[in-house]
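Example 3.2
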Amino acid sequence: MLEIKLPFRLILCLITIQLGVHSNAFASKDTIYTVNGRIIPCDVVEITSSAVKYLYMNEFDSSIFVLYKRDISYITFKNGKHAFYSLDAAEVSAIKEQQPLAADQDKQVKFKNIIGINLVNLVHGNVNFSLERMTRSGHFSLRIPVKIGFDNENGKEYVASTYSGRKVIWSTELGILIYPKGQKRASYVFGLGYEVGELKFITENLVTTITGNNSLVQSNSRDYTFNSFYIYNGLVLSPVHKIAFSFLGGVGGRRTFELDQEYSAALNLSVSVGYRF
């Protein structure tokens, strides 16, 4: 049986790199447009009667600055709303037509829940249902899959030989998915998942009869507990109303407590069809 061992520190590094690469993808900012033509991406901290205080962040410094309102044309906030200062009515109307308001942006997030079934696990002898709950912003979701094995005796759950003979009896997972661009008809997602459950470990031995003329295959099984964690990347498609197709690939580690001293490499594939509401 082929075992691929990954050091625990290496797996933690992979998680850190994954989150670091995408940390700026979903970080919305306010934008200040000044009278003299400057465009300032920032976080507005406070608006007084005469000035605007904002946090300007770059790779070298994070400082709070102040601009007088007379020097500001307008501000576009991260929620899509605007604040207008040194503009006439015609200019204000033109800006509103070019950039959608918050009410229009909220319409992009139509659904808060997805109930799905993983089609890949059906081939492996498991039923895997999942519930995904979106946050109000539409950029984050909490995902809880529940897996129940109904074909635990053949020892052929995984294609790879790493877990040959180990069948899932049951498992549940807690995951966090991040939608950098929000919910769209085609949305890229990434995140983390932590799984716990119980495995049936099946071994087969060749036994010779007393007469020595025949050989029989004797199967033995024993149940073990396990935990796994995964780094996910994938795509969620919504080609028709209220129907979603998700394609997730997770890499990480799995440890069977009674058998393994270290985490072994693990792969979790999910091709799901779901109902959105």
